[in-house]
Amino acid sequence: MKRPLILLITIIIISAIAVFFAVPIRPIDSISGFLPWRLGLDLIGGAHLIYEVDMSKVSSGDRDSVMAGLRDVIEKRVNLFGVSEPLINSAKEGDSYRLIVELAGVKDVSEAIKEIGTTPALDFREIMEIDSSASSSEGKQQIYIPTSLTGRYIKGASVTSDNITNQPSISVEFNDEGANIFEELTQRNIGKPLGIFLDNSEISSPVVREKISGGRAQITGQFSWDEARQLVSRFNAGALPAPINLESQQLIGASLGNESLNKAIYAGIIGTIIVMVFMVVYYRFFGVFAVIALLLYIILTLAMFKVLSMTMTLSGIAGFILSIGMAVDANILIFERVREEIKNGISKSLAIEEGFKRAWPSIRDSNISTIITSVILFYFTTSFVKGFALSLFIGVIVSMFSAITITKTLLKVFVKK
To answer: What global pTM score does this model have?
Structure first.
């Protein structure tokens, strides 16, 4: 009896902390608990944009790298407009490449569209010293100035590794004209950093060790493999001709998003209350424990959504509401098994143990099949369905804990022999 009681107290404490994280559901810019809620485009309003990427002048082997670089640059651009958690996904259909951009809460859609549509610009810059004081040599300042070497002279970039240290480095190859410009640039900047800028933002500043001829250069530094791959993506995005054209746009007003959110919350509350009433009416004493377990499940799941920084959408809320029904379904299986054991004449405490043991295979198998489906939906569908799949996946995981741990602990503590 002591062990279940300690576990129950622990669950109650965790749930009390979770309440602080989970409620209330408010717009993305408010404070609730330690973390704000992240609401999607359909709940807070904004713009849904689809861009067609022109890959006609890009070789097939470089297209994935170009898409990754474009996605990275566009995400950086839209953040300048104060967009919270922009969702940028790439899609391929036949020979067509698309970028799907969701800007939740964006205030100036037209300006965002204008900036996003510009092809990323990559250029190299050298340092110039200027005198800020005519009478003192200590007054010299260094600034980067543009050169004639831009991304259009780059044939491509790739990640390489040192044969001895196995550290990542970046190999850049220029065309013939770019090789000559780069040779002159490195010759006059030996011992100085050479700035590499993408969209007027510095992405690297390697120091020139010697004059580099032949049109090939290697950039080394203290960066990880992921950072090296990101730099290569940016190089290729700025270097290869891949203009993007706005194919379609859909604007969603903030008032429409708030109305959708209110309706979703209202539907969820009504549905949950109906389920709770059914459990109490049909299972009476056991139904009370199911209701308590369900309330704790809702609190823990909402807290999990927020801790994992999940962006909530209408489809995500639908997945969560569906998982509530599945959490109750597990309790129904357990209670029916317990009833059968009690009818066989054994004590309640033993019936509870046997009921959970016999119901577990059915609960496990049904939830695993749902988890597999959620994973498939998440990895092979678009963003709206992904929100549904992710919330359903998290909800099912927590519901298994709720049915097996919370409900069982409540019954062990409060049901007498």
So the answer is: 0.61
Q: Which of 16, 23, 14 is nearest to 306 (CA)?
A: 23
Question: Comparing C-alpha atoms, which of 323, 328, 309 is closest to residue 394?
Answer: 323
| Pairing state between β 216-219 and 168-174 | antiparallel
pLDDT exceeds cutoff 70 at 369: yes
383 vs 92, which has greater pLDDT? 92
pLDDT digits 0-9 by tens, 100-130:
888 877 767 777 777 677 666 778 999 887 7
Contacts of 158 (CB under 8 A, 6+ apart): 170, 171, 232
What does the alpha-carbon distance between residue 149 and residue 329 come to, in Å, rounded to a whole number? 65
Tell which residue, 50, 116, 41, has the closest CA to residue 85.
41
Respond yes or no on whether the N-terminal peptide bond of residue 193 is cis (omega within 30° of 0): no
pLDDT tens-digit readout, 176-190:
888 999 999 999 999
Based on DSSP, count helices (H) and strands (E) in the chain, helices before strands.
12, 13
The number of beta carbons lying within 10 Å of the beta carbon of residue 131 is 12
The number of CA neighbours under 13 Å toward the Cβ of 389 is: 17
Domains of the chain: 2-40+253-414 (1.20.1640.10), 41-119+244-251 (3.30.70.3400), 122-239 (3.30.1360.200)
Burial class (CB in 10 A: 0-12, 13-18, 19+), 318: middle
Q: Can you state the angle between helices 383-401 and 314-343, rounded to 10 degrees?
A: 30
**Token pair for 92:** 């391929």
Describe the crossing of helices 407-414 and 314-343 by its angle, rounded to 10 degrees: 40
